[in-house]
Design a protein that fits this description.
Layout (H helix, E strand, L loop, with lengths): L7 H4 L3 H21 L8 H19 L3 H25 L1 E3 L2 E6 L4 E2 L1 H19 L12 H15 L4 H17 L4 H21 L3 H11 L10 H12 L11 H4 L11 H33 L4 H25 L17 H22 L8
Antiparallel strand pairs: 1-2, 2-3
Helix pairs in contact: 2-3, 2-12, 3-14, 4-5, 4-6, 5-6, 5-7, 5-13, 5-14, 6-7, 7-13, 10-12, 12-13, 13-14
Length: about 375
């Protein structure tokens, strides 16, 4: 029998997701190169470097056995929660918010780490909860506390977008764990009643203004509505095939705010048009479809919940950012995965990818679940 020229260790890697990710990151790098006026610095070069480093990290995560991952779930949650407390005491302030810890060579945003960690700890919690307790308060109260603690600390920073992302990941796990649907309907009704009170008494002035701007951005196109107005202009002016690489006027003439982070999709759409947008959507579709298949084919409850939650986290990032830049959601400062320039965002999403690769390996490799 003839042997394959491709080493087995290479052939076993999940190329169905790695190759689309490489394409998306490289495409994002060209957009960041253009946003910097045709220079690899300061955005494109660091974007590629971060992806390379975090891809190695993802491969490392993928080698972890299930027993070890279950063992570190609660300690990891406790460590990240402690980091969030330290942000309140020692965190660096930037853009009017206190979200970062300066650790010398790196600046860490612990709230980003909580997005995958909340999925991990709730997957462990529900995988050990007896089936008979799913319909009792024991399935809701402990999980609610696990979600509420980091959400409260993140809202103090203040960072509404990240707090909502943490809540989204947690609620997805609770739903997939099989909690009664009537509880979610009741929670939705309670949220609808509480929303007006939260809007007037809990949100900051600038957060309320974002909602007003979302509802009517044309009311103040040169003030609070400036971001979304310029984003729509950039996307619309790209047309079907775009203005051409390096020819985006909105970003190059500094009309479009944050063209390399929150509004990188608008920067791309102006130069690459609807074709570029469809390419981005298609790649996200491939990644999310692969992640959902990993969850669907998992052999135990912990792996199913973990993979589904990580896939949902990536989906939340992408969906909210795309809706935001198109004016379908308020501006909440959530970057586009694998395209926006930002180390914390790249780290979070590559942790999700590495975890999905890990569960995929558990599904395909007998004995990959245990230590030793």
């Amino acid at each position: 029998m003839s042997r394959s020229v491709i080493p087995a260790a290479v052939a076993r890697q999940p190329w169905r997701v790695i190759l689309p990710l490489v394409v998306l990151v490289c495409f994002g790098t060209t957009v960041l190169y253009s946003a910097a006026g045709g220079s690899m610095t300061p955005f494109a070069q660091s974007h590629l470097l971060r992806f390379a480093i975090f891809l190695v990290m993802a491969f490392g995560i993928s080698r972890a056995p299930s027993d070890f991952v279950r063992l570190v779930a609660y300690p990891a949650y406790a460590v990240v929660l402690l980091l969030l407390v330290l942000v309140e005491a020692l965190g660096a302030i930037g853009g009017g918010s206190q979200r970062w810890l300066n650790l010398g060579p790196i600046v860490l945003q612990p709230s980003e780490l909580m997005k995958p960690v909340i999925v991990l700890v709730l997957a462990q919690f529900y995988s050990t909860l007896p089936t008979g307790m799913i319909g009792s308060w024991r399935a809701v109260v402990p999980a609610g506390v696990l979600i509420a603690l980091p959400m409260g600390l993140v809202l103090l920073q203040p960072d509404l977008g990240t707090a909502l992302a943490i809540a989204f990941g947690g609620v997805v796990i609770m739903f997939l764990a099989g909690l009664p649907l009537r509880w979610f309907l009741a929670g939705g009704a309670a949220a609808a009643v509480a929303a007006p009170l939260a809007f007037f008494f809990a949100l900051k002035d600038y957060q309320r203004q974002r909602v007003f701007t979302f509802l009517d951005p044309e009311s103040d196109p040169l003030g609070t509505g400036y971001h979304i107005t310029q984003s729509k202009i950039a996307i619309g002016s790209g047309g079907f095939a775009g203005k051409g690489f390096g020819n985006g006027s909105q970003s190059h003439l500094n009309y479009l705010p944050e063209p390399h982070t929150d509004f990188v999709f608008a920067t791309m759409a102006e130069e690459w048009g609807m074709l570029g947008g469809l390419l981005v959507l298609a790649i996200f579709g491939l990644v999310l479809h692969w992640g959902w298949n990993v969850a669907r084919t998992s052999r135990d409850r912990f792996a199913q919940l973990l993979a589904a939650g990580m896939t949902a986290t990536i989906f939340f990032y992408a969906a909210i950012n795309l809706m935001m830049v198109m004016g379908l959601a308020p501006v909440v400062g959530i970057p586009l995965p694998f395209m926006s320039h930002g180390g914390s965002s790249m780290l979070t999403n590559m942790i999700c990818i590495g975890t999905l690769m890990m569960v995929d390996r558990w599904n395909r490799t007998p004995g990959a679940r245990r230590l030793g």
